[in-house]
Amino acid sequence: MSEHVMEIKTVQTIRRRESRAGITGRFVKYLYTHNPFYVISAVMVLYGVHRVFSGSEMLEHRWLLLQVLGGYTLAMAAAAVLVVRVGQVWDDARMMLLLLVLLFGAISMSFDLVSLQDPRAGRELLASGFVFSILVTEGTLRALRMRLSWLLRIPFYLQLALLFCYPMWLADLSFRGEAASMSRWVLLFPVAAGLCLLSLWPAAHCDARDKRPTGTPWPRPWYPWTMFFFVGVGFALRSFSLTVTFEDTGGLASGFQGYFLIPLLFAGCVLFYEMAVQHDWPVVRGMALYAPVAMLALAFPLGPRNVAQARFLAIMAQYDLSPATLLLASAALFYAWIWWRGEAAGERGLVFSLLALSFLRPSFGTAALETTPLAWPLLLLLGVELTYGLRRGSTWRILAVLAVVAIGSVERLQQSFWTDYRGLVPAALYCYAILLAGLLFDDAPARWIRRHAARIIPVVVVGMALTLPWLFQENVFVVSSLTTLGVVVAVLYWYSELRLRDLANLLTAVFAAVLAWTEWSLLGWTDSFDKGEGWIAAGGGSLLIGLCISLAKGGGTSRTLVLLNRLNRRVHGRRARRW
Q1: Quick check: pTM over 0.90?
Q2: Which of 263, 328, 476, 547 is the most exposed place for a label (fewest CB within 10 A)?
Q3: Number of helical (H) and strand (E) elements in the chain, helices listed first
Q4: Buried b / exposed e across 147-157, counting CB within 10 Å, b at 16+?
Q5: pLDDT score at 3
Q6: pLDDT tens digit string along 446-459?
């Protein structure tokens, strides 16, 4: 029994040792495969440089700081060339090349205090760093025989120029005492960075068609687009550092908030969409389409926590702007562009962006809905939809635009006949617009309207004849124009279709117009008839009803149909001979 227990303990001990050896082996294998020591080295060197060259040490030994950073950058580039040329270890070289991009950004961020104290010395250091970065990039590409097209190389150097030259301009503003202008330009840095990223759009557009070898074992788009992802990360870090260095917040307090990232993310969204279209990536394209809407989460600041954040929001408020309005305006341009390119989702995005821009009034952390919308986004949306609807012959778009116009006119034109009786006049005009749309267009909604117009027209014209004279006794223009418009619509339907029922509708519309005029005339004689106009109108109507019944008894219905049919054939024959 004791021997059996000893065997079990021995087996358990062996398994524990194997498990520990397995964990250690997996960890060693992970270190060997991914080799994170280059990242660890860069972090440790940059932290050490920050500790050594802090405060007055940076001002006294600024050229030594550039030499240390430049020397380490050269060492990293030389190591990348060595591991490729000697061992073809491209996986390790990839990390070192990406670290070079971040080191360029670190060099551009290292001389902010020097630029504030001595702008001339700062310009010399930053210009030297910019030239050094270009030389290292060109030397590394040539040494590794890597191909980077000019569609990518020129935007990359433009982005490096922004990183190195922007602090020069801010330092010059600070030296001249223009603190307000400096704050505005700090706020505009993410916008400038986003525009620099958008300079990559021609390369994204041509990326799928470029089949030339890159000189690396990495497939497209991993090379070279991963490099520009790190450039975007550098821009985000630079946006934060500018709000720390060039604003009087004290310490590490910063005016940076989430909306500083919106221009960078928006530029990335545009580039991702273009690459998804060219490479036919439906999932990435769908994500890029809805990304501007998701960015609204960053567009509502939670309120200023320090002086710099309040200053940035106040600068935008001076121009009646906010992060949300700027994002929605940019999203409207983006969606209009992709809609013009044939993306159906672009129309929905444009409608959402302009409606949100019109009705949303953003404040700190919230978005309030306004009952009185901003006019220009709504008018722009209506103009775009109306133009597209007329060009494409889209009935529902035209009617939707006219419905919004009718509702908006009721809200704007208060205390006039236009809004009497809850907007009866625009409602009547909208009914006529629906009937006319059935004649002007030939899509499915228009055909449906034409099929049912023979039943709609009599109801509309008779209803107006019975109600308008009573409701608008003092406005002959409303009564005459609406009843006459009913006759015109009936004439157009009859002339376009030449059906007997359309001719009957025309006669009904004429009869309704005469009836409306008669009612309005009788209602105008209120003083002479001592308010008995209703009885007179009822008596006239009874006379007409009785006359119609008598004619029907004498065969007048069939004779009327024969006459109408003969008239319809005669008009049809004349029109056929004319054409």
Answers
A1: no
A2: 547
A3: 24, 2
A4: bbeebbbebbb
A5: 55
A6: 889 888 887 888 88
DSSP 8-state class, residue 298: G
Q: What is the CB neighbour count within 10 angstroms for residue 89?
A: 14
User: Are the C-beta atoms of residues 288 and 219 closer than 8 Å to each other?
Assistant: no
Other beta carbons within 10 Å of 433: 18
Q: Per the structure block, which two tokens stand in for 485?
A: 């418009």
According to DSSP, the residues that pair with 362 across neighbouring strands are 367
Structure tokens, 109 = 């961020």
Give the N- to C-terminal CA distance of the chain in Å, as an integer: 116
CB 371 within 8 A of CB 381: no
Of the chain, the percentage scoring pLDDT greater than 70 comes to: 73
Query: Which residues, other chains included, contact 351 with Cβ-Cβ below 8 Å and sequence gap of 6+?
Result: 381, 385
Q: Which residue blocks in 176-221 are alpha helix, DSSP H?
A: 179-198, 201-206
Helix (H, G, I), strand (E, B) or coil at 366: strand
Distant-in-sequence, close-in-space partners of 445: CB < 8 Å, separation ≥ 6? 395, 396, 399, 437
Q: Identify the CA nearest to 75 among candidates 125, 36, 41, 124.
A: 41
Q: Which residues pair with 367 in a beta bridge?
A: 362
Residue 82's contacts (CB-CB under 8 Å, 6 or more residues apart) are none
